[in-house]
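hey so u asked for the seq, here:
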Amino acid sequence: MPLSQAVCVCLLLLAELPASLHRCVFDEVQARVRVIRAAPSPPNGPHGHTRTLQAVPPALTSPQPIRIQSWLSRESEQLSEPEKDQMMATVKEAVKMVSSLLSVQRASSPLLLRRDINKYCKFMWKNSSTINYNKCGRANSNYRTETCLDVMIPDEHLAGCEVLPEPDSTRRIILRPHGTGLPHVDFLLYLHVQAADKCRAEPSLLAYAAHCQMDTGGRPLAGVVVICRDRLTRLTVPVQKAHKSVPCTVLHELFHALGFSKDLFHAWTDCSFQQVTHSDGSGQIRIYTPSVILALQKHLAAVDPELGGPLENLDVPLGAVSSHWEARVLQGSIMLAVLDPSSAVHIDPVTLAAFQDTGWYTVNMSKAQSLVWGKGEGAMFGYTSTCHDNSSSFFCTGSGLGCHYLHLHKGECQTDPLMDGCRIYKALRNGSECWIKENNRKSPEEIFGLDSRCFFSSLTSLNWSQLLVTGRCYRHRCTGVNGYQIKVLDTDWLDCPAGSSIQIRGYQGSVFCPDKRLCLYSDVAPPNQPENISVFSTRGQNSDLDQDAAWSAHRPVAVTTLCCLSAAVSLLVVLRVAYRCSSRCAVRIHAASGDV
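ran it, structure tokens below
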């Protein structure tokens, strides 16, 4: 299945988490991890035959897909064979997806992690005139091994360590020999399943992660994903279904461990002498790197070449930095602080652009998935000063019923702490899925099923004096890009021009036809959609469901249209960013007219 169609489907159920959704705690976990950074060894030194963890010179090799080795820790709580197989299948699929996205300069020698000299060494030579300056002179007798968060690193994964007992002598005592290392590995992922204190303290927490070792260029080499034992089933999918969907949480935490971390922003190498994060005029912290600026500018169809990627401000001290995108601007992104199970969570172009700007990865941007939220809404989209003025259909006011922005669910106009007072249509907890046939039990005018979507509608067959607009489920089929027909219970297929409303004979009220939400994104579909069923169709086809060919025919038009709309602005951004990088100037920040 193409990655563009393999939408990351959250497997969390709203009914299971009535108080809150999964909240990522990466920043507080990473803060208590001591990260070891590799140091180059002398060319002919005692460690010369092992991998020094230095970056391979770009001139010698071309980037290759990153090789991630997962390793279930020995300390993990006992799992049954089905549980273990299920979990490993899930992680394997996540790793496969990441490897299709990110490439690195591979090293030819086995991966060996470094030991922490501050742990194994009790005394270091500090006389700079001696040949053993800054080397270990006396061992710590209490030293046992290295850890990565709560995981004990096996000795075979670790480089050796030694003591030089005299300041000006080459005589050495080997404390631990080199391990065998891991051949053909670029990143080592430790999996740890346990009923951790943090899991018990936060019922909504499913997993958390941290990185613990870096190479000489700052790229993470090893990390841990801790999975809360009693919530294991929420993170995994049956082995036979693993190729269809990847649990959001595993992928989200893996992206953190690979470098989407506030503790690593300063090490990104996108442009010499450029500070990666800045505060804009309203106090919003943003990532200002070339690819991120370009990706967000293209997404919002904005002309501001310095439109940085906004970072979440909830529970973040003023002026501090978060490792998540701002929810008001990037709903649906894989790197939000809270993953909403009612949304199709995507590996979005802004997140991939951030990985490109680390300087550690070459990113396959062609595999970016659709980011529907805020598409084409302009530079002021998501500001708290504009989300209440009805200037964008992505936000709402009041507390009425309507449709979730992907139109797969009915929704209610609500806010939450991440939205800073802005209100959006959140999916209702029970029976809101238009695409589940079994939900067809309330309104006689509605149709629930795989090809049904939510529409704002006041349609009724009753003679009512006052018509109420709410979310209703009707069938739909595509007739082209952003073009579709709808079908109410006893009607024929009717054209529903995007951006307008229609009336239907025999009914009071109207149906509103959403613009640029339906029949435009091939990777937005019900999460349980069978492989051989597509949501696209053309007028006159006998089947309402077998529609892949129709979409394929229209897709080049959609791509061309989007490219034409953004070509001039994209060129402006590329030239502007190139000028800044070549002149090594810091990014200037425009003052915003509203609060973000």
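Residues 1-261 form a domain with the Elastase; domain 1 fold (CATH 3.10.170.20). The first strand starts at residue 8 and ends at 9.
lmk if thats what u needed
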